[in-house]
Amino acid sequence: MKIRIILLLGWILATLPVLALKEVNAPPGIETRVLPAVYKSSGGFTQKVQVTITYSGTPALFTVSLGKEEQKQTLQNGKNFLVFEVPEVSSSTDFPLTLTNGKEQFTQTVAVAPVRHWQMNLVQHTHTDIGYTRSQTEILAEHLRYIDYALDYCDATDQYPENTQFRWTCEISWAVSEYLKCRPAEQIARLKKRVKEGRIELAGMYLNFDELPDEQTLAASLYPLKQFREAGMKAEVAIQDDVNGIGWCFSEFFADAGVKYVNMGTHGHRALICFDKPTVFWWESPSGKKILTYRAEHYNQGNFFGIHTDNFGEFENRVLNYLADMEAKNYPYDIVAAQHSGYFTDNSPPSTKSCEMVKKWNEKYEWPKLRTAVASEFFKEVETKYADKIQTIRGAWPDWWTDGFGSGAREAAISRMTHSDIIADQAGLSLARMLGATLPKDINQQIDEINKSLLFYDEHTFGFSESVRNAYGRETWEQRSLKQSYAWEAYRRCGLLGEVTMGLLQTFGPKVNTPSVLVFNTLNWNYSGLATVYIDHQILPRDKDFEILDAQGNSIPAQAGESRSDGTYWSLYVKDVPALGYAQYAIQVKDTPRKPFETASRLASSHVENTWYAVDFNMGRGTIGRLLDKELNKQLVTSGAQWELGEFIYEIIDSRHPMEQYRAPQFFRRKPERIWFERMEKGPIWDTYRFRGETVAGREPNNLMVEYRVFNVTKKIEVVYRLRKKAVTDPEAVYISFPFEVENGKIHLDVPGGTIEAGVDQIPGSVNDWYTVQNFASARNKDFQVVMGSQEIPLMQFGAINTGRYQAGAVPQSTNMYSWPMNNYWVTNFNADQMGELQWSYFITSNKDNSTDYATKFAWENRIPFLTRILPASPEPDKLLSPASIFKIVPDNLLLVNMKPVPGEKAVLLQLREIGGKPAKFEVKSDKVKFTKITVCDVVGMPLPKKTSPEFAPWENKFIKLSW
């Protein structure tokens, strides 16, 4: 044994020199990279080649030469890095690279091409995230201070080289608008001076918005554009940062309002990002208008480079690596833009660190050239130099992040209801003005305050950065409460505005010898629908029979809702109320007892029918298993669907984090643990079929109600839910199933400012797992469509439950639909839980008319309320008003989105959208108002510079001022 060990050791010692020699002689791996830069030196401009030598063996001294430069380097085991300078080349040139170690030599050729003459614009701003980093109460004061600092920093760098001077882009218009209201005249003069010379730039977006706000509110958000113009300033660029989508209506609004460019500093957290690299394109609106748009990098891209630090070496390496990456991705322009903040945080103050970094860079580099810049400079250069390389893309840009508003379902519902009410109220005030009413002097301010509250609720920052990780912390709850307050403040103010509106309109309704109901239709077509009115029991006693008659003596149906000690909410089915007009109805109380409606706690059969539908309830699941449209002779729901129509689905997942990694988590979905039929009620307007249930999502017994309302007066079904939710911070969600079956059908929905086919009429990479539905979703084919919507719930998924799919360009797998009332799937910003009783509802119809026009009008009839007022009986009776329009809009393919009084004028501003896909020429007709002028305006009501005809292209949005 000892002899064997000695012999083995001897063999090892004898072979060591041979092994070492073999290691030294092993060919090293050589990689070269020509850095994308031209450097300044005393001998002229040079380029640099980075050489990476992968060496295996004991350390050895090598001589490495490239061109005329020679370096000696002891190569270590592993990777060894060297950098060589060569003179700047004007055409591709080969340089020999030689490694020498004694008698061994390794040679290869390095091709050095001319450096691309890059320019990088570094755009400093602060990202406005209201409540994310600190309380909402502090943010405005901070952003006003930042503008003061920006002005001071402009002064401090006036003597710097022009391309390193401090520049600042005001990301949103809110802070600037408030600045103009509160700063001294001399400070505002400083701002105007810097804006005029291009050192400070104003942007047009009021805040950074998710898709919760509707097109009326988004139009209202642009009021600072008028304020800026009146102050002698302009905003040519709109910046939407952080959010990865933007309302399509903006492409219509901006085109006529002097905003030429849209900069999208998108953030890919839990979201796909459109395009594989920063992309400039003409974003085409629904009607074909175009605005130059840049899908930029993250709004802190410059901070990723380290521009806010003192580490110049790291900064230059990251910039050069980025430019090399852009070249590898075939980025088509020689100019790029990178946004950054003074510090690497949201709501950051400005800083001159970037000026120093750019100055140092330009002292060292001839190319790439860096410069401080405002946002629009990039667009202007691309537009000028690369017009032939800019593609046109038509499509909506729906946002991935609005799903987070499902963590505040109650306030989202209140917000949406207020959006509807303020449209009706503004139109009511406009009608009152036309009829001769004098409006309160501050009425437009009241409207503005409601819209501002809605905008602050609808903007993208929901809460504190630690809202999920520290769900019950002080900062979380402070900022959660403040965020919620915006929705409730808008709702409160809108209720008061409604009373102002009806206080004016009621004066135009005569009082008759019986109590009466005055009803105003603020939509621009005649229609029949539900008018909700609260009637005191003195006027309509609980126990007395009654009849409600129109001006021709015809009886109209009425159905009681919630009742209190002093009165009852009534739904009246009013018929053919004239467009932008009124009708009046008499309440005749009889001296006989009121007959109770037919009710039952059991159904003789789970199959029920009316004129339009045959419905089969699944009594054990509280759902609709079959739904036959008798007119179309079509079954409208998927046979044997896993989740039936109206089914309540409670979902939990294993973790929130897979969605941060763009993959689906593990799901567990369940129906209610118990559900049973509670009650049937026959009514003159609808029949009610109510189920009760219990779900683990709720608290206390009987925590779930599902109520189906099958209408007797029109072709419609409503589904109403009440859930007494318990607080759960583990990830959870609720869905409601609507498995519509439309053979060869496609799903369409309306987004702010237009209608799209899901997955098709949108920019690839924009959200398709879920959608924020404004008013309706439609499953349609060439023969018919099924239309549904919700007053309260915006989020829907199409084809299947797609949460966590993350597949760009995906289209719905079927015509099944799933409403998504609530979730808490985020890891930051949004609520970790929600609790208490919530109520929400859906409206559904089907029709052989498969047009967008039909679907739009059905949805608006169910979302925009009639304005109503009870008038007591008069001792000096008059006769009921005959139904009439105050004025009419033609043709009927124009949708009146909004109408509001113009301050100080006998005029109203109409916001209109073409919804039939065909040209239209706007006209008005009236026998009550003598209109004197029609003026086509921009979104803020300013007449367009050129006399413009009130003609609409298909799908176009316009603003028209009517004067009398």
Describe the structure.
The chain is of the alpha+beta class. Helices cover 23% and strands 34% of the residues. The protein is built from 15 helices and 55 strands. The strands form 13 sheets. A 10-stranded antiparallel sheet has the order 26-33-34-35-36-45-42-41-38-39. A hairpin with a 4-residue loop joins strand 33 and strand 34. Helix 3 (173-182) packs across helix 6 and helix 13 packs antiparallel against helix 14 (474-505). It is globular, with a radius of gyration of 34 Å.
Please state the oligomeric state of the protein chains shown: single chain
Number of strands: 55
Unreliable runs, pLDDT <50, ≥5 residues?
1-24
Helical segment count? 15
The proportion of strand residues reads 25-35%
Average pLDDT metric = 95
Q: Give the C-alpha Rg.
A: 34 Å
Structural class: alpha+beta
Q: Tell the overall outline.
A: globular
Largest sheet: 10 strands, antiparallel
Helix content: 10-25%
Distance between the termini: 118 Å
How are the SSEs placed, and which strands pair?
Elements: H1 2-25, E1 29-34, E2 38-41, E3 44-55, E4 60-66, E5 69-75, E6 78-87, E7 93-101, E8 104-112, E9 119-124, H2 136-156, E10 168-170, H3 173-182, H4 185-197, E11 200-202, H5 215-220, H6 224-230, E12 237-242, H7 249-255, E13 261-266, E14 279-284, E15 290-295, H8 301-305, H9 312-328, E16 335-340, H10 353-364, E17 365-367, E18 369-373, H11 375-385, E19 391-394, H12 409-434, H13 443-458, H14 474-505, E20 516-521, E21 527-536, E22 544-549, E23 558-563, E24 567-577, E25 581-593, E26 599-600, E27 607-609, E28 613-618, E29 623-629, E30 634-635, E31 648-653, E32 667-670, E33 674-681, E34 686-694, E35 704-711, E36 717-725, E37 732-738, E38 746-751, E39 754-757, E40 771-772, E41 777-780, E42 785-789, E43 795-798, E44 817-823, E45 836-847, H15 852-863, E46 867-871, E47 884-885, E48 888-890, E49 894-901, E50 907-914, E51 920-921, E52 923-925, E53 933-937, E54 951-952, E55 957-963
Parallel strand pairs: 9-16, 9-18, 10-11, 12-13, 13-15, 14-19
Antiparallel strand pairs: 1-3, 2-3, 2-17, 3-6, 4-5, 4-7, 7-8, 14-15, 20-25, 20-46, 21-24, 22-25, 23-24, 25-47, 26-33, 27-28, 28-29, 29-30, 31-32, 31-37, 33-34, 34-35, 35-36, 36-45, 37-44, 38-39, 38-41, 40-43, 41-42, 42-45, 43-44, 48-52, 49-50, 50-55, 51-54, 53-55
Helix pairs in contact: 2-3, 2-4, 3-6, 12-13, 12-14, 13-14
